[in-house]
């Protein structure tokens, strides 16, 4: 029983780590896309 609990706890830690990593990647990607769109619109405004 103790082994099972220990395994679940370590698994939980791994899942949390990977979830945090995935969220960070998604957030970074979203920020990059938004910045790109913002930059494009600013360029278009300057050109027009």
> Mind summarizing the main beta sheet?
none
> Nearest-angstrom radius of gyration?
21 Å
Distance from N terminus to C terminus (CA atoms, Å) equals: 70 Å
- pLDDT average, as an integer? 94
Estimate the global geometry from the Cα principal axes: rod-shaped
Low-confidence stretches: none
Main attributes of the structure:
membrane; 48 residues; transmembrane; rod-shaped; transmembrane helix
Condensed summary:
This protein is mainly α and 48 residues long. The protein is built from one helix and no strands. 96% of the residues lie in helices and 0% in strands.
Q: Can you walk me through this structure?
A:
This protein has 48 residues and is mainly alpha-helical. The chain contains one helix and no strands. The N and C termini lie far apart (70 Å).
Secondary-structure blueprint:
Blueprint (H helix, E strand, L loop, with lengths): L1 H46 L1
